[in-house]
Design brief:
CATH class of the largest domain in chain A: Alpha Beta
Radius of gyration of chain A: 24 Å
Number of strands of chain A: 22
Strand order of the largest sheet of chain A: 6-9-10-3-11-12
Strand content of chain B: under 5%
Distance between the termini of chain A: 43 Å
Strand order of the largest sheet of chain B: 1-4
Number of domains of chain A: 2
Radius of gyration of chain B: 23 Å
Distance between the termini of chain B: 33 Å
Largest sheet of chain A: 6 strands, mixed
Oligomer: heterodimer
Order of helices and strands of chain B: HHHHHHEHHEEHHHHEHHH
Largest sheet of chain B: 2 strands, antiparallel
Largest interface: A-B, 57 and 43 residues
CATH topology of the largest domain in chain A: Rossmann fold
CATH architecture of chain B: Orthogonal Bundle
């Protein structure tokens, strides 16, 4: 029933960037393994190789002692290996039943056997405890339900090894509880489960053993019971946590630079008020979908807003697009680096200067002036690149992020909003970014950080605002703040 | 200005890539890119050599001028089209637009001539009308696409029909013809030459040069490429996306106006078949020149070469008897597909 997986010196390169440096370890059959590592540690890439979404560049993958190379996720599924993605792999416009059978539809002759698929879908939905009509359009489900549909899909594929990537990131405590029961049931049936999560309390509670990865390398494997949470965190980061963050500098007493009162974003946020002073770092915590990103997008004029007052430097402002916001000295770095942050097909230089291009045009663009700006940014922000002529897509995640930060700082904003500034970034680059953010504040800018990494909000910010379901729950002083307290506010169990 | 960071970070900057294979791959990639960029030029040179070998009349000054003059209309439109495609848009209406502008210009000039006194003044009025109409049509396209949020394909598919139908209506299904005195006054714009080079070629060159400067050396051009490469990223980076996109259609409209005011004196008339399929020829020139149809990567020089290349094919078929001239469009079609095949995987 269960299968044994062995990684042998697995190497993965994305273009010139190596993200896995010869990873070797084994997954015992029928166990639940917590795969730990910071963003950018290579966990997701390794699991995508295991489940056929990526090919490996060197090394080998053995399933039950036989070297395998899955050309597609379908081949991996046929071998019983199913990955449940962080971002769901469901087509919103199809029904739940159609999604569950996507790619392996049941047929009768040339035609689809809708009735049999619907019945089978209903059975497997029952099994995961989701009582919905299989004909429901998937896009109409809430996130937790989609998660369960993903699991139902895996079950219907007779999974013998299930990889779950941050399955509880979007779930409430009671939904999480239901998921855990389901996982326990699967394991009792002999399914191997690989569980990727940042929430160490879940890992401690659920898993039999842990595997730690860091910066594309295997670090250690051990029994969960023999490690404290603090030890796990230290292993993931590779240094004492206290060393990761710069010391906090108290902001000088002054009037708020950005002051928001009663801002509402239809469908996303309701009546949110907060202040940021010059030199202050304000964190925004909350579950995925709590409305943090949407709040700031509406502040920039990227979304409709319904009421509320925004003051910047004492003046009432209502930006209609990011261009107006930039003129007034407010810039925003999106959480979606490839979709909204950087032109990955364009050069470093073109990316860097896009937000204040007029300064390099007199009236013809001066490539030498742009090149000087790039050289300056590469040295100020510690951007590592083989050549200055590279395209942004050729940089590693951490260096792309540094470039994106350099870009939003080019116009010299007074207020800068950084959305998930360390997503998909290795540990070293994270530390660099933390120190950089502290410098921004020390220069007298007001800094807002939206992050899902509680550790980083607590380590870096002066105050942390917690949002839940579009409403601001509390604004907490970061001194003596614990992760448990933040989670309690974010999930409404305080 | 951004802050300086810790010492360790400063020294980390600009370290050469330590992995030799990666550097080699990078070099190989650059070589491939260069070859691909030079593709249209190489193709044109090979084609010209072949033409010269097949028929001695091909490699003559007169024939070269003839080919380039005929290329001018499509070439000028293609330069404007290059902006639209680079920004991620498309304009299917340019052929119909040219026909309607040609008809309108002829009607206006015939009407103004008795009032204006001299035929020259009437011609100037007609030229102004051509440019104004082109810009206005482009503005309408741009507004419908950005503010109206309709796909460019749909908007211009609609106006493709509208423009040509109105020309057919104005001409009553026949031809609108320029009065003789006007035709004589206007003739030199197409048939005249300066320094032995016909006027349309000079105009074509000027438009191409202006397009090159605008696309590659101004912030406007950079924004056009940024929008085509990823509109969302450009919007988040405080680029005035709508304004820039509207201007690409206005520029294309003006280019169509310029092409039309060169075209009218050639025949002195406009009919429902005027400018037929010009939109496809212009789009083909842009694509053959190495601009990606999905946007973000515009090449004006390539576009000019693409336009010339396509008309050289027609010219060679006319001069030789290897392939029937009836297959001209087929040969062009094959060329487009082959070029697209060679360029696949650009991204």
């Amino acid at each position: 029933m269960s299968l044994r997986v062995r990684f042998n010196e697995v190497v993965k390169d994305f273009g010139p960037v190596r993200v896995l440096h010869g990873v070797s370890f084994e997954l015992e059959p029928g166990r639940m393994v917590g795969l730990l590592g910071e963003n950018g540690a290579g966990k997701s890439t390794l699991m995508k190789i295991l489940s056929g979404y990526e090919s490996l560049s060197a090394g080998s993958l053995e399933i039950d002692g036989v070297a395998r190379r899955f050309a597609s996720s379908r081949e991996a599924e046929d071998a019983g290996i199913v990955l449940i993605h962080q971002e769901f792999n469901l087509a919103d416009d199809l029904t739940v039943a159609q999604n569950i059978f996507l790619g392996r539809e049941l047929r009768r002759g040339l035609l689809l056997d809708e009735g049999r698929m619907r019945r089978a879908a209903r059975e497997v939905l029952q099994e995961v405890g989701l009582h919905i009509d299989p004909d429901t359009r998937t896009g109409d489900l809430i996130v937790a339900e989609k998660q369960l549909v993903e699991i139902a899909k895996a079950l219907s594929r007779q999974a013998r090894l299930l990889v779950m990537d941050e399955p509880t990131a979007t779930l409430t405590p009671s939904e999480t509880q239901r998921l855990f029961e389901l996982i326990a049931q699967l394991r009792a049936q002999g399914v191997t489960v690989v569980y990727i999560s940042h929430k160490l309390d879940e890992v401690e509670r659920m898993t039999d053993e842990i595997v730690v990865m860091r910066d594309g390398r295997f670090i250690m494997r051990g029994q969960t019971a023999q490690h404290t949470r603090h030890q796990m965190a230290t292993l993931m980061v590779g240094r004492e946590l206290s060393d990761m963050f710069p010391s906090r500098l108290a902001p000088p007493p002054s009037e708020p630079l950005l002051s928001v009162r009663g801002l509402s974003v239809p469908g996303w946020a309701h009546d949110v008020s907060f202040d940021v002073r010059p030199g202050e770092i304000l964190g925004f915590a909350g579950l995925v979908g709590a409305g943090r990103t949407e709040l700031f997008e509406s502040l920039l004029g990227l979304r409709k807003r319904a009421g509320g007052e925004v003051r910047l430097g004492g003046r009432v402002v209502a930006f209609r697009d990011p261009r107006e916001a930039q003129r007034e000295g407010l810039t925003y770095l999106s959480e979606d680096r490839k979709g909204c942050g950087l032109h990955i097909h364009m050069s470093l230089q073109e990316n860097l200067t896009l937000m204040n291009l007029e300064r390099h045009a007199r009236p013809w663009l001066d490539p030498r002036s742009e090149r000087r700006a790039l050289e300056q940014a590469v040295s100020d922000f510690g951007i590592r690149t083989g050549t200055l002529d590279a395209r942004a897509g050729a940089l590693s995640g951490g260096n792309q992020q540094k470039l994106a930060m350099a870009k939003v700082l080019q116009p010299g904003p007074r207020v800068v909003v950084l959305d998930e500034p360390t997503r998909g970034v290795d540990v070293g680059a994270k530390r660099d970014i933390y120190f950089l953010i502290q410098r921004l504040a020390a220069e007298g800018r007001a800094v807002v950080i939206i992050s899902s990494e509680l550790m980083e909000l607590i380590g870096l910010c002066h105050r942390v605002a917690v949002m839940r379901a579009g409403a601001l729950q509390a604004t907490l002083d970061a001194d003596n703040l614990t992760e448990e307290e933040l989670i309690a506010h974010a999930t409404g169990t305080h | 200005m951004p802050p300086a960071l810790t010492d360790s970070m400063q020294t980390a900057a600009r370290l050469p890539d330590p992995t030799a294979p990666a550097a080699a791959r990078q070099a190989a990639r650059q070589l491939r890119v260069r070859l691909r960029d030079a593709g249209p030029v190489i193709g044109l040179v090979l084609l010209c050599i072949a033409g010269g070998l097949l028929n001695p009349d091909f490699a003559t000054w007169d024939n070269a001028m003839n080919v380039l003059t005929r290329t001018a209309f499509i070439g000028i439109i293609a330069v404007g089209m290059c902006f639209v495609i680079t920004s991620g848009g498309i304009d299917l209406s340019v052929g119909s637009m040219a026909a309607l502008i040609a008809g309108s210009v002829i009607m206006v000039m015939n009407w103004v001539a008795p009032l204006a006194g001299s035929p020259g003044a009437a011609v100037l009025v007609g030229m102004a009308v051509a440019l104004t109409l082109g810009a206005a049509f482009g503005l309408v396209h741009g507004l419908l696409i950005t503010k109206g949020r309709i796909e460019p394909f749909i908007v211009t598919l609609g106006t493709l029909g509208i423009f040509r139908a109105y020309l057919t209506y104005f001409s009553n299904g026949g031809a609108l013809t320029l009065d003789n005195t006007l035709a004589d006054a206007y003739g030199p714009v197409y048939y005249g030459a300066w320094l032995g080079v016909p006027i349309p070629i000079w105009v074509f060159a000027a438009v191409a040069l202006a397009g090159m400067l605008l696309l590659n050396r101004t912030s406007y051009g950079r924004y056009v490429q940024a929008i085509g490469s990823n509109e969302q990223v450009a919007r988040y980076a405080a680029v005035a996306v709508n304004r820039i996109k509207i201007w690409t259609y206005v520029l294309l409209g003006i280019c169509v106006g310029v092409a039309t005011l060169l075209y009218v004196p050639r025949l002195g008339s406009a009919s429902p078949s005027t400018g037929l399929l010009w939109e496809l020829e212009a789009i083909a020139a842009v694509i053959v020149g190495g601009t990606a149809l999905k946007g973000g990567n515009g090449r004006i020089v390539g576009t000019v070469i693409g336009a010339v290349l396509l008309s050289v094919i027609g010219n060679i078929l006319n001069l030789t008897s290897i392939i029937s001239v009836y297959l001209n469009a087929a040969v062009q079609g094959f060329v487009i597909i082959v070029v697209a095949f060679l360029q696949r995987g650009r991204r």
